[in-house]
Amino acid sequence: MALNTEPNIARPDDFYQALIDAHAGLTDAQSAALNARLILLLANQVGDLDTLRAAIAAARDSVAS
Amino acid sequence: MPSTYRPPEYPYVTPLEITTGEVARTQVAIVGAGPIGLAAAIDLAQYGIDFIIVDDNNTVSVGSRAICYAKRALEILDRLGCGQPVCARGVSWSVGKVFFHDELAYRFDLLPEPGHRRPAFVNLQQYHLEEALVVRLGELGHRVRWRNRAVGIERDDAGVRLDIETPDGRYTLAADYVIAADGARSPLRDMLGLEWKGQVFRDRFLIADVHMKGEFPTERWFWFDPPFHPGQSVLLHRQADDVWRIDFQLGWDADPEEEKKPERVTPRIRAMLGDDRPFELEWVSVYTFQCRRLDRFVHGRVIFAGDAAHQVSPFGARGANSGFQDTDNLCWKLARVLRGQSPASLLDSYDRERVEAADENILNSTRATDFITPKSHVSRVFRDAVLDLSRRYPFARRLVNSGRLSLPTTHRASPLSTLDRDVFSGAMVPGAPAADAPIRLDGRAAWLLNQLGGRFDLLVFAPVAPRWLDEVRRSLGGELSVALVVPQSVGDESTGLLVIEDAEGLVSQRYDGAPGTAYLLRPDQHVAARWRALEVAEIREALARAQGRGGH
User: Fold this and answer.
1) What is the CA radius of gyration of chain A?
2) Measuring CA to CA, which residue among B362, B371, B367, B365 is closest to residue B249?
3) What are the pLDDT digits (tens) for A2-57?
């Protein structure tokens, strides 16, 4: 399964707000802990290792290329 | 010193060659009488190969050494004739529990499938294991040359000459081949100037062997960040004689000398036990773990095995267990080469297969160590996230890594294997170690693996045409032993074959053994080839390939 980088979230603004709201009132350390848990949960939802590797590479590429 | 154990003192005997001044000559010199050297000696004795085994000491190893012997190692010990005493002496376990903070995160069972002779693991102090191996070697009419230290080595295309030092002086030991089983600090490796590549993990672990009447079950317990040892991990294992192994992670900054002192160790154990029960410290040491290996294990006529060839951190019990698989893989090949039955290039397959296995073990052990000792802040954040989620969500339990416990390597790309032409399901692919199963032999309960190995076996699933079986035995009978697997109901197979009654149907199930199926198995019980229906010419070709004689 290839990494889908086309729009796929039904209500993007609602998702984005939910993501930001989840961090409300958290310290940086707590936010980092939340992000880690969220990545793990979503990774399990995706399941496919090739897709996960493509997502990791795309994220890494965007930060340090 | 341990209060529960007094190490034997094996007699030093002045070597004949010291008196006569002659060179000692043998086919194989084994350097090191630890578990791996002893296993090699027993295997070579069973193959009828002439050898001399030397060790610089005159006793077994004491201290906190290997304790967990995995199912495959136990099956190898069975073939060597000493699986039973080891299993009888040790404690068997298959359940592991992982705790995070003060609660159970999850439990696992390593052998949920019944119908195997040996359990997932037997825990036994290394000194008991070594004693059992020395006894077995004695039964075969051999003894170790104790207090014979290899201090020099010279080699050429024709052989190897070892300089051996004894309390009475030196002599020369000349051998066609040397098995270097002289441990993680291998002096032979240094003498040959071989590079020992890998990494040291920046962490320290306190390893304590404790004698106590514990009420813990016979399970592997692993704590991440427990209240009694905050911020670090702890591992608890039961051994024989009411001795328990406890590993405390200390961190890189710990002072090894300070941490070994009883006044430091005792409170740690007391905190873990949480009560006043009496215990005695048998042995305490502080370790730094490392994963390293030689580039190649075969260096001309010097062949490295066990920790001398590769070293792993202990999480996963992949040290001694992989060493037994080394000699299991090596000895039949060496025996064939020395008898002139196979070319010396057969030994290249030892290098290839066991390097592959070492890489698999190092990978698994490194990943476990990285999970237990996160190398960066972010890896610690993810590690703790996994542990936290594992308390509520099953998916996260699969990510927790307190050691992926030793399983034998399937040599998928082995040059000795014949690729499948037919379609099979299940795990018994070419290169895989053969699975055990309960059987009946002459009407009595027995185990499949105990009937196999030490020679090439052809496992044939009935019914097959008797004429065909006759042809196989007539043309290949000198090269392999034929075993016929029959279902429960079939009666008279009085053909002089080994007839294996598949009483519970598990042989057929585990080998996907439809009638007419045949498996060619190597002397180390790994699958070499398999067919749904076959021609004698095909078996002959697969056999030649598995023996390193040609192939395509």
Assistant:
1) 13
2) B371
3) 899 999 999 999 999 999 999 999 999 999 999 999 999 999 999 999 999 999 99
Q: What is the CATH number of the domain that holds B508?
A: 3.40.30.120
Q: Which domain holds residue B307?
A: 16-86+124-194+293-365
Q: For residue A40, which residues of chain B lie inside 8 Å, CB to CB?
A: 382, 385-386, 389, 396, 399
The pLDDT score that the predictor gives to residue B552 is: 45
- Note whether B58 and B140 are same-domain residues: yes
Is residue B525 classed as helix, strand or coil in its secondary structure? coil
Distance CA(B484)–CA(B493), nearest Å, equals 9
Q: How confident is the model at residue B495 (pLDDT cuts 50, 70, 90)?
A: low
- Cα dihedral B309, B315, B320, B321 in deg (nearest 10): -110
Q: Which two tokens stand for residue B176?
A: 């066609």
Residues of A in contact with B385 (CB under 8 A): 33, 36-37, 40
Q: Is B21 on the interface with A (CB under 8 A)?
A: no
Please enumerate in sequence order all residues whose Cβ is within 8 A of that of A60, keeping only pairs 6 or more positions apart, or say none. none
* Residues B155 and B39 occupy one common structural domain: yes
> What residues of A are in contact with residue B388 (Cβ under 8 Å)?
37
Say which amino acid occupies B470.
Answer: D
Put simply, the answer to whether A41 touches B389 (Cβ < 8 Å) is: yes
| Helix %, strand %, coil % of chain A (to 5) | 70, 0, 30
CB B40 within 8 A of CB B144: no
Which of left, alpha, beta for B128 (phi over 0: left; psi -120 to 50: alpha)? alpha
